[in-house]
Amino acid sequence: MGQAQRSDARSVPRDRAEYAAERRRKQGATGSRTGSARGKSARDNISVIYGGGSQKRACSGAYRSARNGKESASRRSADRDGLENLDLWEISRENDNSRMMRLADREQVRSGQRHSRKRPQPNRQTAGNPRPVSAIKGRRAKKRRLNLYRLFLFLVIGVCLILIYQTTGAVYRMMHKDKISSGRGIVEIVSEKIEENRIQPPSIITDYLEPNDFSRPGTELKKIKSVFVHYTANPGTSAAQNRSYFANLAETQERSASAHFIIGYEGELIQCIPLEEQAYAVATRNEDSISIECCYLDEDGKFTQETYDTLVHTLAWLTQEYHLSADDILRHYDCGGKKCPIYYVEHEDAWEKLLADVESYKPEKL
User: Is residue 324 domain-resident?
Assistant: First the structure.
């Protein structure tokens, strides 16, 4: 039995033999300590052994943290494992159990290997969820497809426009082959078409009144919104006579009255005031309207056919010139209630026919 213990003692590593000798020396010095006290004293002076080398750290009572407080968690774990292994080894030595000593040796070796092994670092290139990467690739592919689709669409539209232009040009050349061959351009032909449909002014006798405060005030006419139709209220008088009446108002000063145009019962047309100036015709609308006085022969105020034809032509020309419509042609009666022109106030159907004739008026082709 004693020989077995000695053979086990020989198998103890050198550092552990030194530790046992030191412990016996301390036990001899104290003498009277009990077994449990000796174990505690030995643990208080344990030298921590881990890894392949020997590092010594003094422990007092409960294991305190390092002096600088910044040791890593791995070192603290290694120290704890070393203490546990040494405790196991010491217990096995005190009990003289060789099996427990071998187990303690194996645990110490495993602990050293475990802490000496490098911890694998995650691969940052492959870490993370791969789903966002695939989603980004999908969006990029979708964007490329969309750009290609737009480019293709633009090309198709461009080709269609070119084909339409060439087809239209070919058709136009076939229809106007003679005119184009004569050296006339498209702009010239279009302008000629517009001129054919344009209403030319009727024959006008220009005889402006002299500026005065009673028939030609000279006030600027900035805009034209309506054309008013009047009658002279003096049957059997000519356009020249009514023009003279307006001119004499500068002398008689009996009232203020005038009109831009006067149409005689034979169809003659006299212009008394420029279209850039106001006339004294409709008190509340002089600043934005043109007025036409019409002569007549019958007491009922009906116009002669010559007066009627000149009036329709003049109204059609003015509405085209100032971009007006038939709704902008008014009677003096429509603004103020005066029965002027009397025939077309008392005969609404005749007035509606007059407006329809103005809308359907076509210039005479020479």
Answer: yes
